[in-house]
Amino acid sequence: MDPDDWFSRHSPARTAHRTVALVNVLTTGEAGPEAVAAVLREYGEADPLDLDAADVAGMRAAARRLREVFAAGNVDEAAGRLNHLLADACGPVRLTSHGGHTPWHLHLDRHDEAPWAEWFLASSCMTLAVLLWDRQRPPGGVCASTSCANVFLTGTSGTPRRYCAPRCATRERVAAHRKAARNPDADGTAAF
C-alpha cells in the first residue's frame, strides 16, 4: 500500500467532499445500498462494501443530523451543532491502523468494525470540525435555490456561497429575470 495514495484518498478535504456527497444522496432521495456504495467507492472505500437496507437507514438518519450543521446560520451555531453531535454520537479520539492494513489515522467511532452509520457520522463530524476550526466559518451551507436541497462546502475566503452549483445560481437568476419581466414596476421598466 502506498501511504501517499491512502492519504490523498482519505484527506480531510476528500472526507469533507465525501460527507457532502453522502448527505446529498441520503437526504434528497430514496437511495438504496448500491447508490450509497457507489459514493463510498468514489471516495476511496474498498470492496466489499456489504451495505444493506438497515445500514442505509442508519446512514440516512446520520445524514439528517449532519445536514443540520450545514443549515446553521453562522459559525457559532455550526460549532454548537457540531459540539452536540460530537458529544452525543462520537466516541473518544483514537488512533487506528486497522490492524496494520492502513497508515495510522484518527477515528471517532467506537471501534474499527463500527456500523456504517456510526463511522459515517463520526468521521464526518471530525472533518467538519476541522474545517470550522481551520476556516473560522461554517463548513458549508444548504443551496438557496428553491428547487434544490443539496448541501455544499464553503470556500476559505471571499463572499459566502449561496448555491451548491453554478446551474442552481443560473436557474434562480433566470427565474428572477422572468418574474421581473412579467411584473414591470410602475414606470414601465422591469426591476432587476
Give the topology.
Elements: H1 3-9, H2 12-27, H3 33-42, H4 53-70, H5 75-89, E1 94-96, E2 105-107, H6 116-135, E3 140-142, E4 151-153, H7 166-182
Antiparallel strand pairs: 1-2, 3-4
Helix pairs in contact: 2-3, 2-4, 2-6, 4-5, 4-6, 5-6
Keywords:
ABATE_dom_sf, mainly alpha, ABATE, Jann2411-like fold, Znf_CGNR, 192 residues, CGNR zinc finger domain-containing protein, single chain
What does this structure look like?
The chain has 192 residues and is mainly α. The chain has one domain: Jann2411-like fold, CATH 1.10.3300. Helix content is 54%, strand content 6%. The strands form two sheets. Strands 1-2 form a two-stranded antiparallel ribbon. Helix 4 runs parallel beside helix 6. The radius of gyration is 19 Å and the shape is globular. 27% of the residues are buried. It holds the Pfam family zf-CGNR.
Major sheet size, sense and barrel closure: 2 strands, antiparallel
Number of discrete helical segments:
7
Oligomer: single chain
What is the terminal-to-terminal distance?
56 Å
Pfam family, one: zf-CGNR
Organism: Streptomyces roseirectus
Domain Zinc finger CGNR: 142-179
Protein name: CGNR zinc finger domain-containing protein
In short:
The chain has 192 residues and is mainly alpha-helical. It contains seven helices and four strands.
